[in-house]
Amino acid sequence: MIGMKSIFHYWKFLLTVVVGLIALVLYFALRQESNAGWLVSIYAIFIAIILLVDMVKTLRSGSYGVDILAITAIVSTIAVGQFWAALVIVLMLTGGETLEDFADHRAKRELSALLDRAPQIAHLLHNKAMSDIPVSQVKPGDTVVVKPFEIIPVDGILLSDRATLDESGLTGESLPVDRASGDRVLSGAINGHSAIHIKATATAKDSQYEQIIKLVREAESNPAPFVRLADRYAVPFTLIAYIIAGTAWYISGDPVRFAEVLVVASPCPLILAAPIAIISGMSRASKHGIIVKGGAVIEKVASATTFAFDKTGTLTHGEVKVSNIAPVGQLSASELVRLAASAESGSSHVLAESILAYAKKHRMKLIPARNVREIAGDGIFATVSGHKLIVGKAAFLKKNKISGLKQVALDKSQTVILIAIDGVYAGAIYFADIVRHDTKTTIETLRRLGVNTIAMLTGDTVDTAKKVAAEAGVDQVYAELLPVDKVSVMKRLSSDKNTVVMVGDGVNDAPVLAAADVGIAMGMRGSTAASESADAVILLDRIDRVALLRTISKRSIGIALESVWVGILLCLVLMVIAAFGKIPALVGAGLQELIDVVVIFNALRAHRGTK
Questions:
Q1: CA 521 to CA 515: how far, in whole Å?
Q2: What domain range includes position 167?
Q3: Which of 19, 153, 173, 609 has the lowest CB atom count within 10 Å?
Q4: 489 and 477 in contact (C-beta within 8 Å)?
Q5: Is 33 helix (H, G, I), strand (E, B) or coil?
């Protein structure tokens, strides 16, 4: 979508072209040189006034820029009678703005594509009859038909036997994914060759795709302080340009020389390079399932020296699984788990669910349990195959005077439950939140990309945290933290000249994500609070995208700076040559336009070439 600012730029450029054509007709066809000069001069001064007004607004906002060079170049060329050069400068400025808008639109293609693809209609199936309704009217529980190659309008559960979906617009994953009946399907995914039925689990407003669209709109409404990057060089560049121009005028005694130098000192390379490169980086990130909420985030991620991670659900999968089985005596590991699972079969505790999942995976046949009595937070009593079982915490078994516990040495780095049979200790089952397979590789990549410190902030025990940290390659561990404690740690880490990126995924991560210099929410697991607090959101549950964002950010900023320096150096060379009177004002204006084109296309490289 083209904004009002872009439309104004296009009309200003077209008006400049029209004025130029009229001036050419007056000059060459009608031989009215003075009228052509007056027309161009008045229009050029009009553009200079617009630039001056914008510059004053910029100064009032506390920033500064290089527009003064363009204004001076226009005024000086008119003052020395070089009105054709003034016209080319104005054409260069208005054309540069239009070219920037074009490049900006191209760089935002992936972001805009997400908005353009938003479904508007849903096919509702009711009493075996299908009707089209606005997607906003779909309610949880409705059955929705998704035709071949259509976009799934709301989150839901697949009712059809199977489906092949293209989720690249959501996650950046290019390969289609297969889903089976009962699987969760996300709005925004594209259906395959066959029509499917889904049961809506959320309204369109609360669905995944709408959340992504909200993030994209937020990203588009928070542009980077692009000029800030260029303005680091604006003051010295402006001073050097005036010194060279003034010296050339003083030595030659010809005011035309002053105008000729300033013509090639146009600030367009400084103004255009940074925004295009950074927007290209944002677009590149979105193509890989990373929504960045503003260009300033790209700058900060590129310069960050410390990355901090939440543990559960970020460095680890966030799912407790059976990690070790330690039976005693003649009891086998599988029999120990079978007995424990039989006793826990009616429990809703997370560890009970993990034991049952393990038993199901290993196709263990459970035994009906009798006399089941659960003590919330401690453990469970049950009778299985005539044996009295107690399953629970070590303290719970000690309280029930189970024999054989004194000889047990437990691994405190893992969660554990103990099992007793007929009053005698029978073994332990350990649980762990498994570290992601790509966590260590991601951290190693971040170190290669210049990150000095990797920290982990978690509410887990010190022993558990240290074990995960050792496996993941983390060098600083902060454990047993409440959400408020995490914020305090983040403030200590964010010392002067130390930009800190925090990566998390849960609701309790929202405060620390907001407190960090850059907060990254990972996985979009339904945690709206975390996503809204974050500066960037990784749409898929992959930690390697953190390293990819760092790679894209460093590349984008590197190309932005490279483009700025290329523009500055080319301008300096041309200024020196113009100071000796070797570049007429009209030719200099044309060369400056060529520099703009070189800078813009170099900045667009940030949109490609990264994994």
A1: 13
A2: 120-203
A3: 609
A4: no
A5: helix
CB neighbour class for 94 (10 Å; exposed up to 12, middle 13-18, buried from 19): buried
* 7, 306, 464, 476, 477 from 470: Cα distances, Å: 56, 18, 10, 10, 10
Residues 138 and 168 in one domain: yes
Listed in order, strand segments (DSSP E) in 103-224 are 121-126, 129-134, 143-146, 156-158, 162-166, 177-180, 184-185, 190-191, 196-200
Pick from 178, 203, 228: which residue ends a domain? Answer: 203
| Model pLDDT for residues 369-407, shown as the tens digit of each residue | 999 998 876 889 999 999 999 998 888 899 998 988 887
In a domain, 526, yes or no: yes
CATH number at residue 532: 3.40.50.1000
The number of CA neighbours under 13 Å toward the Cβ of 489 is: 27
- Distance (Å, rounded) from C-alpha 530 to C-alpha 278? 24
C-alpha torsion angle, residues 202, 183, 118, 288 (rounded to 10) = 120
Q: Residue 129: what residue type?
A: A
Asked whether residue 382 falls in the same domain as residue 469, the answer is no
For residues 426 and 445, membership in a common domain is answered with no
Cα–Cα nearest to 539, from 192, 316, 211, 205:
211
Instruction: Tell me how long the chain is.
Output: 611
Which helix (H) or strand (E) segment holds residue 383: the answer is: strand 379-384
Kindly list the strands in the beta sheet with 184-185, ordered across the sheet, starting from the edge strand earlier in the chain.
129-134, 121-126, 143-146, 196-200, 156-158, 184-185
Count of structural domains, the chain: 3
444/532 same-domain check? yes
Please report the sign of the dihedral spanned by the C-alpha atoms of residue 167, residue 213, residue 196, residue 147. Answer: negative
Q: Which of 398, 401, 405, 353 is nearest to 378 (CA)?
A: 398
In a domain, 447, yes or no: yes
Mention every residue, 6+ apart, whose C-beta is less than 8 A from residue 191: 146, 147, 148, 149, 150, 151, 152, 163, 165, 166
Record the pTM.
0.69
End-to-end CA distance of the chain: 28
Same domain for 388 and 453, yes or no, is no
Per-residue pLDDT reduced to its tens digit, 455-514:
999 877 788 888 889 999 999 999 888 777 888 898 888 876 688 999 987 556 777 888
Cβ neighbours for 287, distance < 8 A, ≥ 6 positions apart: 110, 172
Tell me the two tokens of residue 565: 């320096």
Question: Among 9-13, 199-203, 371-375, 418-422, which is the least confidently predicted range?
Answer: 9-13
The answer on 402 and 469 residing in a single domain is no
